[in-house]
Design goal:
Elements lengths: L1 H29 L2 H9 L6 H10 L16 H4 L2 H10 L12 H36 L4 H14 L3 H15 L15 H14 L1 H21 L12 H6 L4
């Protein structure tokens, strides 16, 4: 188990580097540093000196991937890619154009997101696997067909409809939960109920079908069984015929 975890961690290193390189290249192909400076300073009446100053203040006056003007390893180190990547690996996200600390904003706002996503994930797994087990138990029956039709119907409904419908019914009409907002401490629970329920219900269609496809072969193998051996270590012909897949 430890060896498996170590392998997965080692596999993550080249994966993260590759994603970083691909994202960097795509970003700077679409937006060069000069284009970003013009967008920030304004498209009209922007001087070359103003663009150069803006790029220097943010470290965009360096070459992208290779610096011919340097020697040795500094050919790689004195580049936009290296400096931005090192800061990113240290979880130093810098500041926004308005001067806000991006890392502080993430640290402050990640907890409400986790408070919604983790309960929604766990409740969704429990609900989908339980319903999928029930569907597999009723395989090759009219109830299974009706369940699959219901799953497809749930999948055809947009997530936006679940959100608007849930807010209108439970928050606006019944006034059981707040329609939006957030609060700290134990009061946050009442703000979590509606988004968690919407997330679970909207994922039932695809989740049940997915886990049914995983559990169906297992259930077939268990119900099919194996021919039980009799005296002499050989399977009984009657038992083998009764338990054969046909």
């Amino acid at each position: 188990m430890i060896a498996y975890l170590l392998r997965r961690l080692l596999y993550a290193v080249p994966l993260l580097i590759g994603v970083n390189v691909l994202t960097f290249v795509l970003f700077f192909v679409v937006n060069s540093p000069d284009d970003m400076a013009r967008m920030h300073l304004g498209q009209k009446h922007v001087t070359a000196e103003a663009i150069a100053k803006w790029k220097h203040e943010r470290g965009y006056d360096l070459p992208l991937l290779w610096n011919e003007g340097q020697a040795g390893l500094e050919k790689l180190e004195k580049t936009i890619f290296f400096e931005k990547s090192i800061r990113l690996m240290r979880f130093d996200f810098g500041s926004s154009d308005t001067g806000r600390d991006i890392g502080a904003d993430i640290a402050e706002r990640m907890w409400p997101s986790l408070a919604i996503s983790l309960p929604a994930l766990l409740a969704g797994l429990l609900t989908n696997i339980t319903l999928a087990l029930g569907v597999v138990f009723l395989r090759q029956s009219p109830l299974e067909f009706a369940a699959m039709v219901g799953c497809v119907a749930l999948m055809s409904v947009s997530l936006l409809f679940y959100i608007i419908g849930g807010q209108f019914l439970f928050a606006r009409l019944l006034q059981l939960v707040p329609i939006s907002g957030w609060d700290g401490g134990t009061d946050s629970v009442r703000f979590l109920i509606l988004p968690v329920v919407i997330s679970v219900v909207s994922g039932i269609g695809s989740g049940v079908r997915w886990y049914r496809s995983l559990l169906y072969p297992i259930q077939c193998d268990l119900s099919r069984g194996r021919a039980r051996p009799v005296a002499g270590g050989r399977a009984s012909p009657a038992t083998a015929q009764r338990q054969s897949p046909a």
